[in-house]
Design brief:
It is a single chain. This protein is an alpha+beta fold. The protein has a single domain, classed as Cytochrome P450 (Cytochrome p450, Orthogonal Bundle). The chain starts with 5 loop residues before the first strand and ends with a strand. Helix 1 crosses helix 2 and helix 14 crosses helix 18.
């Protein structure tokens, strides 16, 4: 068995040549304090762990042992593993709030034998013709929103993008244009977002880590989820009563078609449909808002990049725009890690992993490796101006079987929204210090000041 592989048994490598967890470095400070640093000062944690080596063990009381790896060979092996030794859904269940918000059935669908089937079923909604059909709604939503933004004074671009991306995702996912139904959906989404971002949710989130994935009751979240599901149910009822020729090309219409294809006794019942809608509505705008917030934060501090972007967009060339977005996602990935739960004793290349361990692919560190990128801390879109990012050194969407379903949609949305904004607005240069990266409730890394920018009217 060669490199870049996971073996479900510990055989295949001579025992004396196996790397064990006991032989790996650990942070010299108390791990609980180190975990706090990871959340509050992620770049400090990254630089500190880089001094310890490619693999670092983090032990936190009452939580699984975590192994952070920045090895590209390990990452490749983890992404290619298909034998059941590593599970994505169980890692989400143990260390993230996804199951509490999306439900057990949908999280289960991301692991085991159902995963490939579900992915094949829904993939048409996130590529090709479907994406092209979403662009007009994205442009219209952007043009409407930008007319309401304040000019000539600092604003949080991340906050603006949250509102805009929510508008876009409502149009793309639901296709709702009727004012009353759209307002009901927006109110439900804002209520759910508020509940997820509350101190009560954060406290329960950290408690769930200690309680092995179990969650304390939270009535505010339950009520918000029920409100979104009620809106979805009404919309589904409306669509089913609407003649086929009047149905749009939004995600909900496509998912109803997927449900028909899956059959009466299939996996895709109405509960799963509601959970998917929740996932798309939440993930679809939070990630985009974070990415575009970081793009703006980087652009205002790099006026030469902004100047070239203006020049290329003026002649209809979006190649450099794509490079700007890709580079922002490299130096400021919205999701700095991806995780897998070790289901049974196995080895990743030469590393022996006992069942119960969490293996963490440290995306933020891999993307800033000096051997992969010259001057890796520098924001330099020229890296990707004439070549696509190497997927083993650029992985903001993860990799392998669990590569983000909405990756193409997210990239397209970021490109269309930013291009449409820059047609009518420009960013004032800013020589203030870089905004600090702050870990968010959903593991996302946000600009510490909300991506403060000053928008100017374009002549």
């Amino acid at each position: 068995m060669g490199a870049h592989a996971v073996d479900n048994a510990l055989g295949g490598v001579e025992p004396e040549k196996l790397t064990t967890l006991d032989s790996l470095p650990r942070p010299p400070i108390h791990s609980l304090f180190g975990w706090g640093v990871f959340w509050t000062m992620p770049e400090v944690a990254r630089r500190h762990m880089a001094k310890l080596g490619e693999r670092v063990v983090v032990d936190i009381p009452f939580m699984p042992t975590m192994v952070f790896t920045t090895s590209v060979q390990d990452a490749r092996a983890i992404f290619l593993e298909r034998g059941g030794a590593l599970e994505f859904n169980d890692a989400l269940r143990r260390l993230s709030p996804h199951e509490r918000v999306l439900g057990k059935d949908l999280i289960d669908a991301f692991g085991g034998g159902q995963h490939d089937q579900v992915r094949r079923l829904v993939m048409p909604a996130f590529k090709g013709r479907a994406l092209r059909g979403y662009e007009r709604a994205m442009v219209e939503a952007t043009r409407m929103r930008l007319e309401t933004w304040e000019l000539d004074k600092p604003v949080s671009f991340y906050r603006l993008m949250k509102d805009l991306a929510r508008d876009v995702i409502m149009s793309v996912v639901f296709g709702v244009t009727e004012p009353e139904r759209r307002a009901a959906l927006e109110d439900a989404l804002i209520e759910l977002d508020t509940a997820i971002g509350s101190a009560g949710m954060m406290g329960r989130y950290f408690a769930s880590m200690v309680m092995k994935g179990k969650w304390l009751p939270f009535k505010a979240l339950d009520a918000a989820i029920a409100k979104v599901d009620e809106v979805v149910a009404r919309e589904v009822e409306f669509r089913r009563a609407t003649p086929a020729e009047d149905k749009g090309e939004d995600c909900l219409s496509m998912f109803l078609m997927f449900q028909q294809q899956d059959g009466e006794d299939g996996f895709f019942d109405d509960q799963i449909l509601k959970a998917f809608m929740r996932m798309l509505l939440l993930a679809g705008y939070e990630t985009t808002a974070t990415t575009l917030g970081w793009v703006a934060e980087r652009l205002v501090r790099h006026p030469k990049v902004m100047e070239k972007l203006d020049e290329t967009l003026a002649v209809g060339d979006e190649t450099y725009l794509e490079a700007v977005i890709a580079e922002a996602m490299r130096v400021r990935p919205a999701l700095p890690i991806t995780i897998r739960a070790v289901e049974k004793d196995c080895r990743i290349n030469d590393l022996a992993l006992p069942a119960g361990t969490i293996i963490v692919v440290y995306v933020n560190a891999i993307q800033k490796a000096a051997h992969a990128h010259a001057d890796p801390e520098r924001f330099d879109p020229e890296r990707f101006a004439e070549r696509r990012p190497d997927p083993m050194h650029w992985m903001p969407f993860g990799g392998g079987a669990h590569f983000c379903l909405g990756a193409q949609l997210s990239l397209m949305e970021s490109r269309v929204l930013l291009r449409t904004i820059l047609e009518r607005r420009r960013f004032a240069p800013d020589n203030s210090p870089d905004e600090r990266q702050v870990q968010h409730r959903s593991l996302m890394t946000l600009p510490g000041k909300g991506a403060r920018v000053t928008l100017l009217k374009r002549d």
